[in-house]
Write a structure and sequence with these properties.
It contains nine helices and 14 strands. The longest helix has 21 residues. Helix 1 crosses helix 3, helix 2 crosses helix 3 and helix 6 packs across helix 8. The structure holds biotin.
């Protein structure tokens, strides 16, 4: 965990003014270094008041609020003109983004909701989305790319979530191909990218991200598979702040992806280094069939390379198969 993440945790947990000396002691750094990190958190949009007794984190809330989100975004995603929309409830933020896109909403329209009544997961699954602390966010993109770039973009989204979560979580965050983000083999985030094609080009893309932020627990069937940030760090996170940090990281990766001409090559090593699926025995579900194989690598198009029992190496894309680790969820 970085010094900055530990500082943030210390400020949240203090719930009141905490002296610079105590903070520096807790972090094992000098007071000057601590002060520098406070400056960085302020630059991210956090209000940290100071007086002669020390520092205090102000206005840390648990509810999504458009004015707070907008304020944080003005600090965290200044390079993109993000158009944020906060909803109490919606069927699915992905569906809402698509409805807005049909009415010519601009790129980087971002819909986030406290609750989804028909949250969608990958492979036609349901994403449980009651108003219990999950963050449900969808981003509208209008890239000029070919359909083959959709998979890489969804992998980049997982990298952006990984970087965002690293600001809050104490240990390593890993990825389950294609784009589940895991902590200790339990899922913290799922991603659903849906594209609209026209003339063999992607006309619009909806990037839906569900992060388990403040849930106190999960239904029995998910207990072993899902985990929230709150369960890990034992305190709540302001959903407005984490949403702004998510968009900060996402916009940085998206900008780099555009500059790389929608090619995945430059991100491949970084993705591989965080991918927990590589080296795993997996079960691959094709429509109507199941096969066991070993996940051996990711290729430059973001596809998973599998070694079958017969020894052949085959490549699979995210839409074609469901890959499940034989040893645990990863
Ligand atoms: C998965 O892991 O199956 C993908 C889950 C994606 C869930 C998010 S929540 C925000 C957005 N709206 C939806 O209906 N789904 C995505």
């Amino acid at each position: 965990m970085s010094t900055q993440s530990r500082l943030l945790t210390a400020l949240i947990e203090a719930r009141d003014t905490i002296s610079g000396e105590r903070l520096a002691q807790m972090l094992g750094v000098s007071r000057a270094a601590c002060w520098k990190q406070i400056g960085q958190l302020r630059a991210n949009g956090l209000t940290i008041s100071s007086n002669r007794k020390g520092y205090r984190l102000e206005a840390w809330t648990e509810a999504l609020q458009i004015d707070k989100l907008q304020r944080f975004l003005s600090f965290n995603a200044p390079d993109f003109s993000v158009n944020p929309i906060v909803m109490e409830t919606v069927d699915s933020t992905n569906l809402e983004v698509k409805r807005l896109a049909a009415k010519d909403a601009p790129e980087f329209t971002v819909v986030t909701a406290k609750e989804q009544t028909a949250g969608k997961g990958r492979m036609g699954r349901i994403w449980l989305s009651s108003d219990n602390g999950g963050l449900y966010t969808s981003i509208l993109l209008r890239p000029s790319m070919i359909p083959q770039s959709v998979l890489p973009l969804s992998l980049l989204t997982a990298l952006a979530v990984r970087d965002c979560l690293r600001e809050f979580l104490p240990e390593k965050v890993g990825l389950k191909w294609p784009n589940d983000v895991l902590y200790n083999k339990q899922k913290v985030c799922g991603i659903l990218c849906e594209s609209l094609l026209e003339d063999a080009h992607v006309r619009q893309l909806t990037v839906g991200i569900g992060i388990n932020v403040n849930q106190a627990d999960f239904p029995d069937e998910l207990q072993d598979k899902a985990v929230s940030i709150r369960q890990i760090v034992q305190h709540r996170i302001d959903p407005n702040y984490i949403c702004s940090r998510l968009l900060y990281h996402f916009s940085a990766y998206y900008q780099r992806f555009i500059t790389a001409n929608y090619k995945f090559d430059t991100f491949l090593n970084d993705y591989r280094a965080s991918c927990l699926t590589i080296g795993q025995a997996v079960s691959v579900n094709y429509p109507g069939a199941e096969q066991r194989a070993e996940a051996v690598n990711i290729n430059r198009d973001g596809m998973l390379l599998l070694k079958t029992i017969e020894g052949n190496v085959v490549e699979v894309g995210a839409g074609e198969v469901q890959v499940r680790g034989l040893l645990g969820y990863a």
